[in-house]
Fold each of these.
Amino acid sequence: MTVAPATPVPPPQTDARAAWSGWHLAALLLANVVLALGPWSVRLADSGPVAAGFWRLFLPLPLLFGFARANRQPLTGIPAKTMLVMVAAGVMFAADLGTWHIGIGMTRLGNAALFGNSGSLIIMVWGLMALGRRPNGFEWGALAAAVAGAAILMGRSLEIGRATLIGDLFCLFAGLCYAFYIIVLQRARATLGNWALLAWSSLAGAPVLLGLALALGEPVWPRHWWPLFALALGSQVIGQGLLVFALKHFKPLVIGLVLMTQPAVAITAGWLAFGERLTLLDAIGMLLVAAALVIARAGERSGAAA
């Protein structure tokens, strides 16, 4: 008679590890939800849209530098070349926020969220160019879906009004600027921590946005501060902080799928707060662009904070 082997008892740390992974997933989801509500805060701010971008970068600076120091990330003794890279990245970040915030005021929130995240596709194309190879089948599919979806959404925006289409183009240009912001920072990420990079690039980008807001004649000093504090703390501290905490624990495909909560939340906010309704054609266009972004994320070798 043989005795059945005893069922192995999982080590005590297994449950703890699963619970910790659950926290990482929750952090990733919450980060995307919080970031998706950023455009709502921009709409509610009584400063100008570019000025709102300035406050988003300026208000959380003490917290960002404090988090960098608490995590022992270098803030001084940085090589001049690396500092120059961070300044250049800050200028690109400012261009991203300035054009995106202008677009948010002109187009639908769902469109703003999708086109604002188009940097993933641009980074994919940049990576292919750097490798000197042609896209594979999935990558061609992502590009085709992105073009088709964008064409549908922009066509629908033109039906609503010329200003809505221009808003789409502003958000698309913002995605381009964000892609170059990530590309510029790639080498600096190898030597500096995420909080230090975010702090220095925010400090470099804030005066650019302030100068642009003044040049455009926008109101800078708000009457009501809470939308700007919600934007600064939500997007720049909570959203970015949770992404920094969670991104390294997931594969790019998971990150891409969770990224799709952003347009879903933005569409819901646009519908509830501003009466922005979608047609079936809008939904098809958004699904095509969303699929393209997921494929692009799946092809990335490493996630980056959005």
Amino acid sequence: MKKPFHAITAGGQGHAGSLGRQPQSPPLRQEGWRGVMLAGSGLAALRAGQACTELELVWHDSGGAVGDALVERARQLGCDALHPGEAVAEEQWRLARACARAGLAFIGPREGLVAAMCNDDAMRQLMREARLPLGETSAQAVRVHLPVLADCRGQAVALVEHELLGERFVMAPSERLTPEQRAYLGQLAVQGARSLGLVGLATLSFSLADNRLGFVGMRPGLTGYEGLAEVLTGLDLAVEQIRLVAGERLRRPRVGHMGHGPGRPGQARWRLLPSVAGQLGGGPGVRLDRPYRANAEDEVRLLVWGRDGAEASRRERRALAEWQGSPGRMDGDAVRE
């Protein structure tokens, strides 16, 4: 049997003074959190619920409630903590404020830092003070996004960056970066996260223009693209987010069974697909994320990975052919080589 997960308060260590110190989390019972309320539904809450189950935490769905009504539902069900799922920064800020008033632990960055993430200009100023170069903010600029995990002891680790190549297709790592640029990007992300006193999970976004990287924005918590870094590093980001907010120590990525690891990633591809298409046989290097009770209007996330781009592409073609129900045939834009 797994050892039960015990939550520990963060205690405010390592936080930037300009944003205020992390307030003490509500007192937690010796046996750990009694329950966690999940915001959102469907795919937006899927990974958070799976992480709670992995950590042997009782969790409850939102029941359609939002905002203050969601916090009240959490209190009625005896929850100690609230997880914002994949909510945008503005919604996370509102939930963090509501949790503070209600005495609930918020599974995300502290309220002041989430508030700063709602304003790109404010975040850019903070990163300028942290001596990070600032990037191009135009919509035409190439952007890469890098998830970072950090604990309350000031330790942080940058994982594998990803690039959005369309509304429904994302790839990691970006093919635009050299190994030297990738290492530099990781150094910038860790420097920025530590300067802000981040605890938990956040994704930092950078622009790439004329071979120069610069910071452009930051998003708290889960974004929906965590699977890309997970399969290439061996870390479950949803699990690590909860552990770190609860005060646990940072765990470093391990080298996976396919040789993936820091400095030597394979390739992972993420696609958003309609849930009405068909079935997927699975197989090595293939994962499908779908809501527990999917219906016709829902979408699912296809994740494939391999030791290199060629292997990931072959697995993607196989998975898409199965999903579309016509082996060997796909839409013209189904796969980007």
